[in-house]
Amino acid sequence: NAGVMQNPRHLVRRRGQEARLRCSPMKGHSHVYWYRQLPEEGLKFMVYLQKENIIDESGMPKERFSAEFPKEGPSILRIQQVVRGDSAAYFCASSPWDSNEKLFFGSGTQLSVL
Amino acid sequence: GDSVTQMEGPVTLSEEAFLTINCTYTATGYPSLFWYVQYPGEGLQLLLKATKADDKGSNKGFEATYRKETTSFHLEKGSVQVSDSAVYFCALMRTGRRALTFGSGTRLQVQP
C-alpha cells in the first residue's frame, strides 16, 4: 500500500510564475491536508479538503493560493505569481474519513523561488 | 490562539545518553498531543500521542506524559541511538478540529 505521494520533490520557479504541487493520498483516504514549512520553523496548517470540498482553509493566504481535491485525481495546491517568500517545503497529509488522528505525511515538495 | 513551544536545538548527545526534549502548549480546552519525527529527506511520522490528561504515549523507547497542570508533553528516551538522529516536532490537535498546530521542531544529533 503506497504512502502519500507528492510530486515534484523539488520545484524551481521564477518570481511571477505559477507553482502547482500535487498530492495523491493513501489508498482509501478521503481527507487531504496541506502544510507549509518555512526554513527552521515548524509546519503551519494551510487547508483541509475532502473530495470536491474545502472544509477548512483558515491557514491559507487570502491571495494567490488555492487548493482543490477533485473527484478523480490528486489534490493540487496552486500558487499564482510566486514570490521569494513562498520558498518553503510544502507537505501533504491524508487520513481516513473516520479518524482525524491517523495522519500520514508525504515527503514534501521543496519550492524554490528565484 | 493555539501554540506549541519546544526547546531549541540542536541537541547533541552521545549514544546511550538520556534524552529530554521539552514541549509546552497553549490551547483552549483539552487538546490531543503528539510527537512527530522527521528523518532527513522524509515526511513526518507519528511517534506517539496522548489524548487526555495523565495519559502516557510510548513507542520505540520514547515516552511522553500529558501533564495538564503544567501544560507540558516532554519527550524522553532512556538510551538514544545514532539512528534516532532526526528532527522532533511536538504538536496539538484541538477537539473537533482536524488541523495540527506544530512547534518549531528540535533537531537531535546522536554521536557514536
Describe this structure in words.
The complex is a heterodimer of chains A (114) and B (112). Chain A is mainly beta. Chain A has no helices and eleven strands. In chain A, the strands form two sheets. In chain A, strands 2, 4, 5, 6, 9, 10 and 11 form a seven-stranded mixed beta sheet that branches. The radius of gyration of chain A is 13 Å and the shape is globular. Chain B has strands at residues 3-6, 11-14, 19-21, 23-26, 32-38, 44-50, 56-59, 62-65, 75-77, 86-93, 100-102, 106-111. Chain B is globular and about 45 Å long. In chain B, strand 5 and strand 6 form a beta hairpin. With 112 residues, chain B is an all-beta fold. Chain B has no helices and twelve strands. The N and C termini of chain B lie far apart (41 Å). Classes of the chains: A mainly beta (114), B mainly beta (112).
Q: Are there runs of chain A of 5+ residues with pLDDT below 50, and where? A: none
Please count the helical segments of chain B. 0
Rounded radius of gyration of chain B (Å)? 13 Å
Counting helices, strands and paired strands, the structural category of chain A is mainly beta
Q: Kindly state the mean pLDDT of chain A as a whole number?
A: 92
What's the number of helices of chain A? Answer: 0
Question: Mind describing the biggest β-sheet of chain A?
Answer: 7 strands, mixed
Based on the model shown, name its key terms.
heterodimer, A: 114 residues, mainly beta, four-stranded antiparallel beta sheet, 11 strands, B: 112 residues, 0% helix, globular
